[in-house]
Amino acid sequence: KQWTTKLRYQNYGDWPTTYVAALEQQVSKAPWRLNYHIQPTTGLLNDPNGFSFFNGEWHLFYQTYPFGPVHGVKSWAHMTSRDLVHWQKDDVSLLPDSLLDSHGVYSGSALPVGDELFIMYTGNVRDENWQRQSIQAGAWLTKQKLLRKIPQALISQPPAGYTTEFRDPQVFVYQGEYVMLIGSQDVAQQGQVVVYESKDLLDWQYRGQLHFTEQQMGFMVECPNLVEVDGQPVMLFCPQGLAQNILTYDNIYPNTYVIGTALNMKNLSLEQPTALQNLDDGFDVYATQAITAPDGRALAVSWVGLPELTYPSFVDGWAHCLSLVKELRLKEGRLYQYPVVETMALRKHERHFNGSLTNETVLMSEGVSQSFELEVNVARHQRGALRLLANPAEDAYLEISFDTFSGKIEIDRSCAGEPFAEEYGSVRQTAVPENADLSLNIFVDQSICEIFINKGLKVCTLRFFPKEDQKKLLILSEETLKYDGKLWDLVALP
Ligand code: FRU
């Protein structure tokens, strides 16, 4: 199929039902579909949107283009869950069906207000000359799951000094007022985050730029998201075109964060921000959205995929997924991310192992399902590697190598299956403290792998596309290595 602009922006209603049915059929039979991660029924998924707890349930929307694995005219699909782990999709969706969002219901957030869920999103509109307009629009979701768009624009255009690259509103309450952050580009082509305030959610006043770093944030900041973690404000955002001398990163665009000591709304600043850091040291995390849950936890969920890249599942008519829901913590000034405790309910069939090897490759497990959690513990002063989902010939696998002297960890997906995005390299590195014990909790689900190092001090998330015969778990070292661990099948029973 030739995905021309015309086709990508065709009205949803103009797609024949036979086309949709055939696509559903194709995707349902596709390899690499996931067992316990949120994925699109058909077509493309990108950013998580409107993550919230409302009316006794978790709500999570996501950006989607349902008609193919491309970035076409976007809408929001809706999922709910009682436990952050088992998610159900329903028919609620925010469609690009009004003059405020004719060319896409772009990313945004949600906030429970009174009896309803307030939703704020960016309406992407193009005129006849394909000039972009960026409108900030709203909607309400009732307890009966009826969606009602607010008919007028809440912010009809960017303030003076900004281009129409202006989107992804995050709404939250700060000292009794509604505050909104928006990702933007100023007329000097620099990425910024701007602040609005409102008393009633309808009338929004522009306050200015948020100061959360002294550095230049590339040409555009997408998906700004401020969340309190253990009493401190943490700002998550995606600076596009960020200079490598500000932060080294390997992906096309990074998902970054800074930690502040306090949010000062008088001078619109995050006080004493840390230097920029990568949220994830893997290959595919972007557009992370985080909220404060009613129980006080800071919860985050990421798009596992990146803009502008081609992934192997495209041939099967679908693309991308969301990460597990991760709890954020601050410990000794460092940000930790770890799957919420509810995730453990997915564990089935626990196996324990431990062993010792010297300059050899040992089979830890054979014939594993491709959806599992593997925990491996290695005491300090050892080196070795794991080869996950190795094939019978043991020449295809995802390799995670570790050196606990230097604290260096390396993920190599070059032999993990169908190659892709190789122009951005097939290896990622991360570091944990030197001369320290190491623990790895690795969540694999068919074609995604989320690696949590030292209980979330570092996270490396990636897609990989193995063949069906890749079912062995290997461990190896050129020296002497002692290890122990556990393995669980992960099953998301409906
Ligand atoms: C980030 C992003 C957002 C935008 C959305 C459109 O991936 O580009 O800035 O709102 O995706 O789907």
TrEMBL record:
Top enzyme class: hydrolase
Signal peptide positions on this chain: none
Domain Glycosyl hydrolase family 32 C-terminal: 344-478
SUPFAM superfamilies xref list: Arabinanase/levansucrase/invertase, Concanavalin A-like lectins/glucanases
Catalytic activity: Hydrolysis of terminal non-reducing beta-D-fructofuranoside residues in beta-D-fructofuranosides
Molecular function per GO: beta-fructofuranosidase activity
Gene3D superfamilies for this protein: Exo-inulinase, domain 1, Glycosyl hydrolase domain, family 43
Keyword Transmembrane among UniProt keywords: no
Alphabetized SMART domains for the sequence: Glyco_32 (SM00640)
Pfam family for this entry, one: Glyco_hydro_32N
Superkingdom, taxonomy of origin: Bacteria
Biological role stated in the UniProt entry: Enables the bacterium to metabolize sucrose as a sole carbon source.
UniProt protein name: Sucrose-6-phosphate hydrolase
